Amino acid sequence: MKQLWQKFSDVLPMPFSGAVLIAVGFWGFVAWDQSHWWEAKEDYGFGWLVPAFVAFVLYDRWPKIVAAAKSCAAPDSPRLGGGLQKWVNAAVGGALLSGAGLFLLGSFYRAGAGPSYPGTLAITLGMAVLLLPLLFLNAPEAPSTRAGVTAAEDARVKLVSHFLFPVLVWLVSAPMVSVVEQNLSLFLLQKVTVVVFFIFDLLGLPIERQGNVLVLPLGSVGVEDACSGIRSLTACLFAGSFLASVFLEKLWKKIALVASAMLFAVFTNLIRSLFLTSWAYNYGPKAIEGLVHDVAGYAVLGLTVIGLLCLLPVFNLRISFGDDAEDGSS
Fold first, then answer.
1. Could you tell me if 216 and 108 lie in one domain?
2. pLDDT lower than 70: segments of the chain
3. Coil, helix or strand for 171?
4. Calpha distance 45→329 (Å, rounded)
5. 19, 39, 325, 330: which is deepest, by most CB within 10 A?
């Protein structure tokens, strides 16, 4: 064990290697806390994949993390300077204290009340707000630094940026506070019902809307919470975040892919609702129960992932202009 620690600390110098191990401990605690909801709520069943995906991303990025740590410790390592550095230090220190307080608050709530939405959310938010500043403050020191650079050029920022997905993805697998989740689900539910009714009405098919219930010729169909798209939205947000983290480099591309995942989730869920309503329209409401309903739900996730995979080559395109091509060929 001592030899393993020695090898680890040789690759990532202290105290940064210690901060990474602390982060792993926090992730283990968060995974234990969230596992209750992964088991109890079908909407968050994808959470069982989060620890494995975090481990994969760290494994995949390990050479970059080691290189970034060495760059951070190299002579003339770029650092923020002047008044901006003081503001950053103050913000990082404040975030560290806030994250620690929030995490402790959630942990005490968990110990007293057991698994709960507020406790899990406080633990997860506290962990995220705590770990990024912790890694930043424990980044390797350099014998000499070069000040006056932008935040994006700061070696410490580049090093910590490799941990954004492993730290922040737990926010996706943590259940939202019930009030937020209910309001968001109700909002999506109303929009799905309105759009489905509008399309059927536009096609001249007899249909009546009574709240979230669609009255069809062969019976009524209630558009339930599971059809709101909240389940596919969270799962597709997780899938988009993972794909963006692994396959894309630029921050704007990562954000664009995650946004595309959310749009895909809403669109494919609407297609699913139209399909189920059409099936019930022709064969009766009972025809969409069981297998048909479940297969349509999983198809939403599958289509979204396929759509995101098709977008990856587009985001990775490198457009060369005529002058650049001529320069490269010479």
1. no
2. 1-10, 82, 177-181, 222-229, 317-330
3. helix
4. 52
5. 19
Q: What is the pTM of this model?
A: 0.78
323 domain-assigned: no
Q: Burial, 287: exposed, middle or buried (Cβ in 10 Å; 0-12, 13-18, 19+)?
A: middle
Structure confidence by residue, pLDDT tens digits, 225-270: 455 567 777 878 888 888 888 888 888 888 888 888 888 888 888 8
Asked whether residue 330 is assigned to any structural domain, the reply reads no
Tally of structural domains, the chain:
2
Contact status, residue 265 vs residue 234, Cβ threshold 8 Å: no
Beta strand pairing call for 213-216 and 219-222 = antiparallel
Structure confidence by residue, pLDDT tens digits, 39-50: 888 778 888 999
Q: Where are the alpha helices (DSSP H) in the chain?
A: 2-11, 16-40, 50-73, 82-113, 117-137, 155-161, 164-168, 170-173, 178-202, 230-247, 251-283, 291-315, 322-329
